Amino acid sequence: MSEIVELTYDECEELLSAGAFGRFVLTRPTGPEIVPVNYVVAGEAVLVRTAPGALLDRYADGSSVVFEVDQVSYEQGHGWSVVARGRAERVTESQLTDEERRVPGPPRWVSREPESWIRLRWITLTGRRVGNGWSPLAEMPVRRVWR
Amino acid sequence: MSEIVELTYDECEELLSAGAFGRFVLTRPTGPEIVPVNYVVAGEAVLVRTAPGALLDRYADGSSVVFEVDQVSYEQGHGWSVVARGRAERVTESQLTDEERRVPGPPRWVSREPESWIRLRWITLTGRRVGNGWSPLAEMPVRRVWR
User: Fold this and answer.
1) Which residues of B touch A (CB under 8 A)?
2) Which of B3, B69, B110 to mutate: most A Cβ within 10 Å?
3) CA A115 to CA A85: how far, in whole Å?
């Protein structure tokens, strides 16, 4: 049986930046919601695309949100999870910073036009993994290398 | 580019029942939280273990919660997600139903004693996938076969 190990900020940032798919968690008046989505990290912010009327478009702007990425290995019986916390904001293409504009966008699996961006400039970034003696980054199924 | 396709209830139940790792989403006074966790399905309920003082132990009982499982394939550029919604309840071993007691429990990656159970008898179960022409169940990395 393994122990839970806290990841350092740098480990969290590296794992979050290397990923491409995660989950936005927000609160609606009726309760919590989770939105699986492709994303990209630019500086200290998570960026995702959304479209008018979508949950993120309607409820994320100005709200306390959580963005989570994780990876598990059933064969090894271990995994990791990183969580970014902060306030989300809806931004238009013209409100993106130069760095945010230069980052190759999230993978597009679904076409949605028109679209806007949800930006989460995280306040805290924490993570944990199960067990020592293995490298979360080395076991990622995909890895963004642009920084 | 693909379209988003709604999954049927039966497809959602099959995918949720076959999985082993998912994410509990709940609301704390300070905002939303996400808890990655191993789980099992018994009847129309999600069951996870928790320990005194853990987030699930403190905030899930009696709350509107969401439980999510998903799987993505970066090579294929597609994925699926299933979400169970309802009110969570903390139950002791003796409060489990006969069926819930018979189900082999969630994988144990971390030792936590003592522990209690969080049960989510879902009210709604919905899901979606990106694109047609592929089988979410066939692409699962692990699959529980006990029913």
Assistant:
1) 1-4, 20-21, 23, 25-27, 30-34, 36, 63-66, 68, 70, 72, 74, 77-79, 81, 83, 85, 107-111, 130-131, 141-142
2) B110
3) 23
**Nearest residue of chain B to residue A140 (CA atoms):** B74
Q: DSSP code of B107?
A: P
Alpha helices in chain B (DSSP H): 9-18, 55-59, 98-102
Read off the tokens for B5: 């396709």
Nearest to A109 among B2, B26, B63 (CB): B2
Which tokens is A97 given? 């910073």
Return the exposure string of A75-102: e unless at least 16 CB atoms fall within 10 Å of the residue's CB, then b.
eebbbbbbbbbbbbbbbeeeebeeebee
Q: What domains does chain B contain, in order, with CATH numbers?
A: 4-139 (2.30.110.10)
pLDDT in tens, A42-89: 999 999 999 888 999 999 999 999 999 999 988 888 899 999 999 999
- Using beta carbons and an 8 Å cutoff, which residues of A are at the interface with B? 1-4, 20-21, 23, 25-27, 30-34, 36, 63-66, 68, 70, 72, 74, 77-79, 81, 83, 85, 107-111, 130-131, 141-142
Q: Which residue has the tokens 């699930």?
A: B56
pLDDT in tens, A7-42: 999 999 999 999 999 999 999 988 899 999 999 999
How buried is residue A132: exposed, middle or buried, by Cβ count under 10 Å (0-12/13-18/19+)? exposed
